[in-house]
């Protein structure tokens, strides 16, 4: 799938980063406003799909040199680890903790262990979806 | 509104079942896609369509839409994506191996017991 | 120590057997296995003191306390006797098998695992006080017997015999379970002791006779009583140690055990006495009659076992008369039954082992080819002679004593006056006498046709010689027991038989020594049983000498009329019938199965809705219709019909995308921003996915779907659609319990520290769901990868071959 549409490719380079940053924003905003790991992950996947359509598979692989199956694995471990972590603090499996912290620059923010779990979800969604699309696209 | 939605859900299910019963593999996949859409709307309708605001805590709002069906559906949407991708690949691999997408020709026989 | 655990010792040992077999090739696995029954035997001997005083020992292991089901090991005279038979004969059989089964050629690991499982199961049957665990062990004996009969699983006859025994005994087992459950309902307990204690209240209960018949069916199938005896001859395909152990000494006696154990509950019933005595006597008669016809050594023994089991069964039935008559003779019958059970285990065990030795050393079991082995195999002959003479009921062997007691009991039935016995009672001694004549004939037939006379001119498959001494140890021990018991019957009686009798008739005695039976070989010339014995020896001897002339009479009885033919045709019919039925609805087409599913979903759901009057529509609760909703619904329906009517792949995929986007719009309308976002992105990615796979996809085609097919599909589809609509409406209108959503809404800020309730539900409240969901997603991703990679690697292989 070699395309040579200069306008598409140039726009894509710009739009990719906009979508990607937006997906990160949506992911972090998830606890308070619409968004979260699923939507964030899917948006990131969407951005990568756009890259794939504008360029070809090899170029994208060079630009994003991750093995996405391993990304999936890391995500699963992160999610399971967060859930299992609670048992070390003598509370039932899957108990989340949160608290308010005052950080320089950001001011008062609340930090959640649920966020780490959501990050796991994000990584799994990106990993699994991109793996599927890459393999299907690469199947000659 | 629920009445209308119930009918829409019924139509989606009907179309999905009709497609799934056809002999073409691709139609079966399209059918499963419609079926998951139907199921999502069914959950939403059963939970009730009331609520003045999205289920996000906002100052001064107390009448939220029911968050539980939404959470269930969100899970279902992502799963159905995974399953659709899986079936899609399964289908076209089957097609490539057997050179046919006719469901009537793809049947088990006694030799492979 | 909790000795209920000992029941499981053989099964636990079975776990180690395959390991020993694999690692210690040089030593025959049997030597290790031998330790198990020996240890158990020695341990259980210690209980004799308790039971001799009429006491019992009990140990319990809770299993399902809420249902009153537990493993209880209850050891009284009866169960101890069986336990000692199981472990004692078990030890001898394992010892024998060490020499019988070659360690290099046979799959010893399988054999001993099955045998040890059987041992546990059998111990469980005779020691269980809880009927449910008894049933469990009962079926386990059937299964291990199945495995052992089919041990040489490459032989057709073995598989046939295994299946046949399984079919019949498991049928009986299920009947037994039914009987046990009925007893449990009647007595409100599963404990046998408590059932016996309440037995008087069962009489006249509507389930009483049914439970009785069901329990007897279980016992009769297991003990190969007429007409269920047909499985036992076919079970002879098992290796000979198995035949000696399961099919003569222990497992087939489980039915006798059951009858003995339940005598206190059922003996008051006329049906019980008639069935047990009558069927027992009938089995005795048929078994002895057919044994003479057989030409295979083991088949003779199989029929003789059938007939001897019938003998013991009829004695148990006669013993039940003790509940109706004060005549001491009927207590005597129970004593005789137990005594003969011990004798039978010893002489039949030794005879089976000899049959195995003959088979092993000459290569055939066909009695027509054998003859004159007496001089070549003197030890085997002596053992066979002792066993056969005991079986025939001649002195000085133990069988003589119990045969005399049997005849005495049968003679006594004449004088019993209840239950029509006055009219029919005379038949009992007559049939018993005829059967004894035939028993005499087949005993002589077995030993003398094999060992006496001249060797046949046709050479035997192997050159015969005496068996190795290790193989002879077990039969010689058993044969010496046969002789010893003849001289010390009253010691055996005091140690084993009387405690067992007391267990069978608990209400009649307070101490085993109350059983006033004194066994003697000589009762004086006036005793009628003596003259019965003398006459049967005379007639039997004449019949044996003239056997060649009348043996042909058996051929008059046509094969297709026999019970075996009935069994075979029933099996063929049911197999063929089932096959046709399943072929009728199992077409192999996914579409057919989907039609079944959808049709049933629609029918069952719709029927439930209306039968349960669950279809209620509460118009009040509906939210007002808004314009965007209507417009969007129209768009969605148009998109759906485009999917249905699309002629090309591309238009179908785009239409499907359209459906997805309008669903996303619905999410917007119904205040679900998270869903709307997710659906929009997913739909985009899905369309991309479809397009990426586009070149691989087949084009749309009907594949010759006829108008009628289409109509059928449409009807089912419409049915499902309408049902779902109805469910959606009624589910919305009725809320049986309040939704948990309110809890989420109330606590989301305080407990979870979040604002977006949907996302908090996903990552916190219902985090498990999400965890499993991402696991499923990863599996789907890896599966897609695997399916495509799999093809690539196979292609590479094929190109390699082409080079």
General description of the model:
The complex is a heterotrimer of chains A (140), B (113) and C (803). Chain A is mainly alpha-helical. Chain A has one domain (6-138). Chain A has five helices and two strands. Chain A has a two-stranded antiparallel sheet with strand order 1-2. In chain A, helix 1 runs antiparallel to helix 2, helix 2 (37-54) runs parallel beside helix 5 (113-138) and helix 4 (68-85) packs antiparallel against helix 5. Chain B has one domain (2-52, 60-101): Helix Hairpins. Chain B is elongated, with a radius of gyration of 19 Å. Chain B contains three helices and no strands. Chain C folds into four domains: 3-545, no CATH class; 547-586; 590-746, Up-down Bundle (Four Helix Bundle (Hemerythrin (Met), subunit A)); 747-803. Classes of the chains: A mainly alpha (140), B mainly alpha (113), C mainly alpha (803). The interface between A and C is large, with 48 and 40 residues.
Summarize the structure.
The complex is a heterotrimer of chains A (140), B (113) and C (803). Chain B has 113 residues and is an all-alpha fold.
Which strands sit side by side, in order, in the main sheet of chain C? 1-2
Q: Helix content range of the residues of chain A, please?
A: 55-70%
Please compute the radius of gyration of chain A using only Cα atoms: 18 Å
Estimate the strand proportion of chain C. under 5%
Question: Keyphrases for this structure?
Answer:
heterotrimer; A: mainly alpha; 66% helix; 9% strand; flat; C: 803 residues; mainly alpha; Four Helix Bundle (Hemerythrin (Met), subunit A); two-stranded antiparallel ribbon; 33 helices; 2 strands; elongated
